[in-house]
Amino acid sequence: MLLVPRQLRRTGMTGDVPYYGGRFTPAQAYAASHPAPTPAPPPRAPTSTPDPMAALDHLFDAGLITPEEYDDLRARVAK
How far apart are CA 10 and CA 20, in angstroms? Predict the structure, then answer.
């Protein structure tokens, strides 16, 4: 069944119909030639830098690194 514009109006499919009769509606042609502006991204909160010594202390307290590794890494971080 082929729908003609009059039948489309009867069924309430006018307005936002993406394609009918091979042509854009005037509203769709305007929307295609005038895209909506994209909103600016929200400002980002400043991030704090993590404390490397606190991270080393946590690794050592959790038992994930040995005392020798802890001393070696602490000497590297201190430089």
Answer: 14
User: What's the pTM?
Assistant: 0.39
Query: Which tens digits make up the pLDDT trace of 10-37?
Result: 555 555 555 556 677 788 888 888 888 8
| CB distance 77 to 52 below 8 Å | yes
What's the rounded mean pLDDT across residues 55-69?
93
How far is the CA of 75 from the CAs of 1, 51, 61, 65, 69, in angstroms? 81, 15, 18, 14, 10
Torsion angle of C-alpha atoms 55, 62, 78, 48, degrees rounded to 10? 10
Residue 52's nearest CA partner among 76, 30, 28, 35 is 76
